[in-house]
Amino acid sequence: MTAIDIGIAEDQRQKIAEGLSRLLADTYTLYLKTHNYHWNVTGPMFNTLHLMFETQYTELSLAVDLIAERIRALGVVAPGSYRQFAALTVIKEDDTVPSAQEMLATLVKDQEAVVRTARSIFPLADEAHDEPTADLLTQRMQVHEKTAWMLRAMLG
After folding, report:
1. Could you give the domains of the chain?
2. Residue 108's CB: how many other CB atoms inside 10 A?
3. pLDDT score recorded for residue 1
4. How far apart are CA 21 and CA 17, in angstroms?
5. What pLDDT score was predicted for residue 2?
6. Are 106 and 56 in contact (CB under 8 A)?
7. Cβ-defined contacts of 65-72 (< 8 Å, 24+)
8. If we measure between CA atoms, which residue out of 13, 45, 32 comes closest to residue 91?
């Protein structure tokens, strides 16, 4: 493979990719959790939550590809195994089937955790003048902040 010369030093690309790898792991783990909740939600709000969770996990499934492709564009291998994601993510797996209200509360916290991960990468992207990564981070934060707001609204 030819050398990468996009105006970002190799060490900066590596550090940004490490941050994006954490974001990828958080996003993929949240995707799995949201999909699980979609399958297993019950109660009077079943249809509303079932459809809302489907919308959310569909958006997350598209996001993992964008994040992984940005890592690759920086010249770094993207993590892609459950083991790698488990080591990188701050999102806790849920081995139980919580109530619908607990699902909503958990997803609010998880959406906000992904925002914090994305925000933590900004200084690296800013220092490297890595506008494509900054743009990706901004878009991801907007989605997760809005989703957290909508989930909080469902909690009342």
Report:
1. 10-155 (1.20.1260.10)
2. 19
3. 63
4. 6
5. 80
6. no
7. 66/136, 67/20, 67/23, 67/24, 67/27, 67/136, 67/140, 68/24, 70/20, 70/132, 70/133, 70/136, 71/17, 71/20, 71/21, 71/24
8. 32
Side chain identity at residue 15, one-letter code? K
The one-letter amino acid code at 33 reads K
**Cβ count near 96 (within 10 Å):** 8
Structure tokens, 148: 């957290």
Around Cβ 131, how many Cβ atoms within 10 Å?
10
- Residue numbers in the chain where pLDDT is lower than 50: none
Cα–Cα distance for residue pair 138/21, rounded to 1 Å: 16
**Which residue is associated with the tokens 């949201």?**
34
